[in-house]
C-alpha cells in the first residue's frame, strides 16, 4: 500500500477528480484550499492579493501497482501546461487500521 | 459558496435571474413617461391680496409690509419679494428646494391668519397660490378664421375644447384673445337729455323687460296649468322697439335715443397669426402626465376635429413642447447607440474575439436596464438628464466585465477548463473589481446630495451612474463568469492565420505598442526629475489658459423658438400698438425666411385671469412668438436671429423696451440682474437709468431692462365734497354713474342657445373721448334735476405711481441684462466693474445677482463636491492599498485631468459652464480608476520580488492594454455626446468635451507620470516592510526577547 499525495492548482480540480474516477480509485482525502510554493519552479499559491491562486491537495492510499498508473496520469496532466502546476508524492503506508 | 461559484454552477438560475431583471426593465421602460427634465417643483408660493381702491403705495404700507413682516418668519424661506400695484399686492415666497411645499403653505396660511386682523378693513382675504409646472402650456395652437371669426369663440369652445378636455392627461385647454359677442346699447347724451332720460333708466328698463317669470298654477277643469310670463328677448333687434319712456304724450323707443349693435367686444387684445386674425389655443397637461403622449393624443384629436370645423378656420401649431422633448430624447438615444457601437468596436479591437466581445457587451444592456427599473420605482421619467447619464455610464459599465473576462481567458489559455477558469479566475479579481467600482461610486454618489436646482440635475446623474455601475459589477462577477464558462473554449492558435485576421493585423500592432511603451517608461524612469518638472510645467501652463476660458451657468439650447416682448410708449392705445405690430410683422417676414409661424398679440386681455397678476401688460405691449424651421434646416442659429431682431427693434422709434428670449423655460434663465435697494423712488429710479445706460454701452449686453415701469398717465376725477353735499350726492353715487356712462352698465343678458351675452348700455363713443366730454357728463342729483360732472368736480391729468417692487422687505429696482455673444461670467464681471464705478447715494445698496448668482452658487456646490469626492476616493484607495502614499501617487493624475479639460475647452472654444465643470469633477473617479489598475499591478510585481524599476516596466507593459481599453471605452462612449449637434445637444456636449479632454490627457499622464512618481515615493523601501519586520526576529542568533539576553 502506498500513499499518494497530489498537490495541484485548484483550476485542475475536475481533472484530478476525473483521474480518480478513471483509475477506479474510490478512497481519497481532499483538502480543497491549501497554500504553498514549489521548491524549484512552482509559483506561490497563497490566495493573497500578490499570489491570488490557491492549491488543492488530495491524498489517496492505493495498492502498489496503481501508483505508476497514477503518476503517469499526473505527468500527463502536468504536461498540458507546466505553469498551472501539479505534483504528486508517494510514500509507504506502514500500518493501517 | 461564493456568488460567482453559484453563478457558474447554476447557469440556468443565473440566466433566469437576469432574464427577470430584463423583463422588469422592459416593463418599466414601456411605462416610463418621457419628459424634458426630471420633475421638479419650483418652490414658490405667492400670496395675493386685493384691496380695492388703494393705490400702489397704500397697498405697500398697509398690506404688503405687514404681510411680509409676518411671512418672513416662515420656515425654509429663502427669499421674499413682492409687487404692490393698484388694488393688489402680490408677495412671492421662494423656499429651499428641499422644502415640503404643503407644509410651507400651511405655515404661510397660519402667518396670514395672525396678521389678517391687523390689516385695514376692506382688504380681502389673501389667496395662496402655488405655482405648478403643469400650468405651463405644453401646446399652443394658432387658429385663424375669415368669415367665421365673429363666432370663433363659440365654435371652438364646442367643437375643440370640450372634446379635448375628455382626453386623458389633459389638465385644461383655453382660448386666448377669442372674440366675444356683446350687445352694446350706445346712447346719445343729447337725446337722452332732450327726452329727460338717463343711462340708468335705459338699463333698468332693459333689465325689467328681459325676463321670464313663472307666475303660479291654474287649475282648469281636470288639468293643472303652469302660468308663465315670457318677456325675454329672442333677438337683439327686439331691443330697438323697447319703450323706454314717454315724452309729451308719445312713447319714446330705445331706437330714438340709442343705437343697438350686436357685435364683438371692444378691442383690447389683438391676436394675429401670420398676419391674419385669430385666437390662440393653449393646452395644459395634468401634473405628472406624459407630455409626449398627451401632446400626441391632442394632435390626433385636433386633426380629427378640424375636419368638422367650417372650411375657413385653420388650426396651426405654434408651439409644441413635446417636439423638442422627443427630438432631444431621440437625439440622445441615437447618441447612445453610437456610443454602444464605439464601445463594441473598442472591445473587439482589443480582445479580437467575437464571443468574448459579446459577453462583455451584454453587461451594457443589463446594467442600463436596471436603471430603468430605478426610474420606474422612483416615479422618474426618461428625460434629457437620465438619458445623458446613461450615455455617460455606458462606457464605464464594460470595464468590470473586461477585467473579469480577461482573467478568465488567461486561465483558459493556460489550459484550464472554462468552467474552472471562470470560478477561480473570478475569485482572483472580484475584490479589486468591487474596489474600482467603489471609486466611481465615491465620485458619483455625492452628486445625489447636492441641493437646489442644480441638485435636481445632478442627483439623477449621481443615482443613475451609481446604480448602473453597481449593477455592472454584479453582472461582471456573476453573469460574465457564467457566460464565459458556457461560451468560451480553449482553441488552439491558428497556425496560419488569415491575412487580415486579428492575429495578423491588430495583435502585432498592440504588441509593438506594449514594447514601445515599455521602452518609453524605462527612459522616463531614468529621467525622473525632467519628467516631473515637465509635468508640473504643463500643469501650471494650463492654469494660465484658464484665464481665456469664460464661465457660464447653463449652456443654452436652440429650441427653434423666439419670444419677444416689446413695450411701446406707456399709455399708447391698442390701435396704435397694432400699427407697430404690423410694421414688425413686415420686417420679420422680409428678413427672416426661417420663421415658419408668427403669432403676435398686441395689447392685453383685461380678462386674462390670474396670469395678468404676474405680467405687467398693458395696451402698449406686444408679445411675439416666432417658430423657426428645425435646427438642421437653417444656417442661422436662433441667437443670431435674436440679435438681428434686436437691431431691427432699435430702429423703430415707438419701441421703448424689448426683450428677446430664446428658451422655453427649464434651465434657460441667463440674466445678470443689478438689484438696487432703496426707498426713494426718484433716487433709485435715476440710479437705475444711469446703470442701464452704462450697461447698454457694454458690448454683448442685450435686452437691458429696468424692472420698474415708467409712470402711467391717468385721468382723475376730483370731486368737490361741498358741492356734492349740496346736490345730495356722494362719491359712490357719482363714481358709479360715471362708470355706467363710460365703461357701460351691464343691463342684462341676451340668452341664445344656452349661452349668455352681456347687454351693455353706455354713452356713444364720440361723446366720451375727451376731457370736456367727461366734464359734461350728466348726472341726476337727489332732487331729480340734472347736474354736469364739471359742476361738482374737475378732471385732472396726472401720472400714476409705478408698481412698487420689494425684495427681502426693501424696495428694489432691478436692471437686468442678457449676454449675447459673450459669456455670462464675463458680462457679470463687466457689469460689476460698471456698478462699482458708480457712486451710490447714501442708503442705497447695489447687488449683482440673477442667473449669475445661481452660477456662483453652482460653482460653489461643485467645488464642495470636488473636495468630498477627493476625500472619498482617497478613503477608498487608502484602504485598498493599506497605504497613505499610494493614493497620493495615483491622485497625481487628477490635476492633469483638469489640464486636459482646460485644453479641450480652450481648443473647442467652449465656455466653462456648470455642466462642463461637472464633467471635470466626474473625471476624478474615472481617472483614478486607471491609476489604480496600473499601481496595483506594480505593487504586485514588487511583492513578487521584482526590482523597483523592473517591476514598473513589466507592469507597464502588461497593464497598458487594460488601461487603454477602459480609457478608450469611456472616451469613445462620450464622443457622440460631445459631437452631437441635434436638438438639446448644447446642454450635454460641454460635459462630453471636458470628459474626453480630461480623460485623454490624464491617461497619457497616468501612463508616464504616475509610474515615475511611484518610483520616487517608494524608493525608500515601501515594499521592504517585510524585511523590516524580519530584522527584528533575532531569536535564531540566540537572542531572547523576554530575558533580553
Short descriptors:
A: about 100 residues; Alpha-Beta Plaits; 2 helices; about 30% helix; about 30% strand; B: about 1050 residues; alpha+beta; nine-stranded antiparallel sheet; 33 helices; 30 strands; about 20% strand
Written overview of the protein:
- Chain A is 28% helix and 30% strand.
- Chain A has a single domain (2-92), classed as Alpha-Beta Plaits (2-Layer Sandwich).
- Chain A contains two helices and four strands.
- The longest helix of chain A has 17 residues, at 64-80.
- Chain A is globular and about 40 Å long.
- Chain A starts with a strand and ends in a 5-residue tail after the last strand.
- Chain A has helices spanning 13-22, 64-80; strands at residues 2-9, 29-34, 55-62, 86-92.
- The mean pLDDT of chain A is 89.
- Chain A is an alpha+beta fold and 97 residues long.
- Chain A has a four-stranded antiparallel β-sheet with strand order 2-3-1-4, with helices on one face.
- By secondary structure, chain B is an alpha+beta fold.
- Chain B is built from 33 helices and 30 strands.
- In chain B, strand 10 and strand 11 (250-253) form a beta hairpin.
- In chain B, helix 11 (354-377) packs antiparallel against helix 15 (452-487), helix 28 crosses helix 30 and helix 30 (914-943) packs parallel to helix 32.
- The model of chain B is unreliable at 607-614 (pLDDT under 50).
- The A-B interface holds A 9-15, 49-54, 80-81, 83-84 and B 411, 414-417, 419-421, 424, 427-429, 431-432, 939-940, 943-944.
Derived from helix and strand composition plus strand pairing, the structural class of chain A reads alpha+beta
- Radius of gyration of chain A, whole Å: 13 Å
Helix content of chain B: 40-55%
Strand content of chain B: 15-25%
CATH class category name of chain A: Alpha Beta
Distance between the termini of chain B: 50 Å
In short:
The complex is a heterodimer of chains A (97) and B (1045). With 97 residues, chain A is of the alpha+beta class.
